Protein 1
Amino acid sequence: MPLKDIQFNLQTVDPCGARRAEFTTDHGTVQTPAFMPVGTAGFVRSTMPKDVAETGAQVVLANTYHLSLSERLATVQRMGGLHRFMGWNQTILTDSGGFQVFSLPQKEITEEGVSFAYEENGERLFLGPERSMEIQRDLGADIVMAFDECVEYPSPEAYVQASLKRTTRWAARCREVALQPHQFLFGIIQGGVYPHLREQSAREISAIPFDGFAIGGVSVGEGFDLMQTVVRHAAPFLPEHLPRYLMGVGLPEDLLAAVSLGMDMFDCVIPTRYARQGTFFTRLGKIRIMDKTYRKDKYPIDTHCSCYTCLTYSRTVLRYLFFTRDPLAETLATIHNLTLYQDLMKDMRQAIADHRFETFRKEWLARYNKTG
């Protein structure tokens, strides 16, 4: 498949290794470090696309596995692709479906791919490299992820090594599948929590001419320290002139650590899932709005936040909305959490440009951890 030019422009590298850059797709320029809200079945839950755009999000993620089930793929195709289906005119990334497939029970892994039981009715389905590419091609996202095996934590070293070799073979097969002219394909690094296997996988995957590279297989229970170890050993082997994406991460402290290790892109359900459960992220830590502490609190969630939620509603009103189970509560919480995350990314980009990222990271975490 002929390579396209993702027009990756590495603008600044902080002394600690944090990178500020930008790249371009047919649906806009993305400034990094960037956090991508997750719209699993095509939509970020509890919000409208304009709400997500107003938070400052530049890219959203949709899930190949969920969008391929039943009549969903046909529905997206009838609408002319994900952008029209989602009402989102900026960049979209689709994952390969690998993470969801490998978390399912009764899966059978062969060289060809994975057969598994459909969650709703037990029907046996199959997903392999070629099929994952075909689905993502039909969905029409700007960035497509190669099909990989996401191993459990913990897993024996021998199995992880065999798995990463299979992931490399699958990656090469994905590269051979023709995509739409506007689509870019990213390869995924695996290797569990074994540093030498992460290095091996990074060397093998980066030898394949992908448009960007991701580190997968984290946020599977390994914890903060091991996540950093994984990134520290894999990132130096990834090409400097292409985007680097850490999949499934995370909490604000995770993002700050990973950016300092040279990663550019991130996604996670945490800010939106926590929002729907009544947990708000602020610059001074997390607020669990159902706590009686906020019963008469007339302050906004975050006094330094300019999102619609903070400009309009107090903590006591938001607590009331959650207790009455009004759907508006989840919408307002999601808007705020996504705004907080996008503000954090924007501030990180500025700190990198100013060559003061480590100072910024320490100061931000010192405030955040006071009550978080």
Protein 2
Amino acid sequence: MALHGTLVVGGATLTLIRGAELVAAPWKNGGGVTREVAAFPEGAGLDAFVWRVSVADVAQAGPFSRFAGIDRTLVLLSGAGMLLDEAGDGSSAHGVKTYALTQALDMAHFTGEARIEARLVDGATRDFNLMVRRDAAQGEVQVWRGPTQRTLSADAVLLYCAQGAVRVTPGDAQPLPLDTGDTLSIDSPHALSCAVEGEGALLAISIRYAKR
């Protein structure tokens, strides 16, 4: 089944985002290239989003952009990997904390305020990036491998195909094929059943908005 536009299933709104259609743009600090997958509110700039999901190509070592008030999750998609050095504030004797992302789907969590320097292990990498404004929402990333049956319950869920190909069946809809780089965005999937077939790997991103 090919999904064009949006589809409503069990009260949830589904949108298919093809990886081949993502548009490349320079990083905030100009040190690399990013492709935005989705953001909320839609079209929000880097200073206004509640959450943002993107894929970045990192071709050289250097500092990450800094984002005040943001919590970040980074997942290695391809390449030999990178080491992320987080400089301390001088209050700790340990000085620098290093996150090692050396295997595909290795994951790191850090704040947008952190001073992060990236070192490439052996050449360029591609990574997946979730950024969430911590006073407005919380985000979680899980890795789903192979066939699985899940129940989705959040304010928003994104299923990003990180490896291989899968078929996702949300609720009573027809199966939706996802290739590497494709994303199924699901708005308001409250207790929506979701079956996944195939031997690929998905990143399942759940977003929950802060209660006011």
Protein 3
Amino acid sequence: MEKGRDSASSRSSRLARDDAVYISLSNRPKDPDGTPKGTKAVNGVSSVVIAMGVVSMLTDISTESVSAILPLYVTGVLGLSTVAYGVLDGLYQGVSAIVRIGAGWAADVGDQPKWVAFFGYGLSAIARIALLFATSFGALAAVLTADRLGKGIRTAPRDSLITAASKPNNLAASFGVHRALDNTGAAIGPLLAFVILLLIPNGYSTVFVVSLAFALVGVAVLGIIVPNRGSGTRALPATSPAEPPRNRRRIRWRELNNPGLKRLLLVAGLLGVLTIGDGFIYLVLQDRSSFAAQYFPLLYVGTNVAFLIFAVPVGKLADRFGRARTFVIGHILLLAAYVSATLPITGAAITILCLVLLGGFYAATDGILSVLATQFTTPDTRATSIAAAQTVVALTRFISAAGFGILWFAIGRDSAMMLVSIGVAIAIPTVAIILRSARPYRADV
């Protein structure tokens, strides 16, 4: 009897320890400022968020310096049509969907989001090398595919790292700080491309080399400086030398079967189909205003500077005003950007207005989508749920980019823009109604 009681006591002890290990982010030990234990904070934002912001800034200098010249490089240097550019832009927007959920699942199941993200950043850096030799549609498509696969692998684990290191009631603000640093790089990249092309006419290969250098530095910073932060769930130690370590809990897929998450995915898909790539909007602006091609990268600078300015205040506003409401308002700004691009008005003022509206759209939707995804799941499936939302966006934006390229070719620039604008105007109230009925999985996220 005594032995049986000891055995029962031992089992109870192990069960209690299981429950203690699988704690949520909100119950993890915290420092006095409320951030997870061992995480330094600057003005309420974790040092991990700052470090990831630096990595994203360096990577975005690399990425956006190429993105800023890609429309002109494809249509001007390579001499391809807008349909070909639409396909390439679709790959750029959507091919990452192939790996997003798998990468999020790998980050969750191994509780190693940093190293999954590291692999993704590394793959994109390798693609920069191949870009130096891509001079045909097929080669360029292959390079862009590899680059975007890297983005698909890294994004959800990166956002999971940010979430794990942040206070639940300050989450949108943390994403705002990260996106502000990210878009510092997104503004520097096109500006750098502009300066290079200004000093070296047709210096596209020089832009590609500089892009590679920044990508490699970003990978190095991630590997050396950024700590790994998972959900807080770890493998349990053995209770005796003869007993192997106990495995950590497997992901329960039913935790992703949340009505709120389903509604969010529906909303993300509906709006994604109606969100055309920035490159098309910039081609519309250039076609209407007829400014010199060398100034084309400055359009990317304008949008990203606006994003940079709005990211932190909009993130703080979303935490207080409502994240779903902010997300909907962001798409109202997108609609206004579409309308301003198609107005029969030319000049610097209307161009700047369009860029500011686009920057506001990204500030109100980019990081907010990830925050919304975390509201409808548990910490153990956080990266997977973020990846699911991002996958839907990537797939639908691939359809949008390819479809808009064909639409432009078939019915003309202005008619295509008008048709998409009408679609967004119809979708906005529909989305607002769908999100209003969505209920968070956890009350403390």
